[in-house]
Amino acid sequence: MVRSPRLAHRDAFLTARRWTNPEPPGRLASRITAPLAVVHGQRDRFISPREAVELYSEAAGPCRLELVPHMGHAFDGVAVPVIVDCVDWCLARNDHTG
To answer: The pTM is what?
Structure first.
């Protein structure tokens, strides 16, 4: 049986551990004091957008949440303007004195 590489990649991902760090991502975000931009696809079928909202709500420093319509789990270019804007946002809030 011939399988597409895309499906093989998907199957490998689904059988892998989704988070190899034992700490929940929200707990890790609570230690981040640098500006943090969370960009997540609203059509992500692997990781729920609710997890992005959790990261956003747990961040210790300034945080921005962007839920991108029409974007799934993989970066396909649809979010380029959002990412550029988020990088600018983070840089504007970063302390360059240190």
So the answer is: 0.72
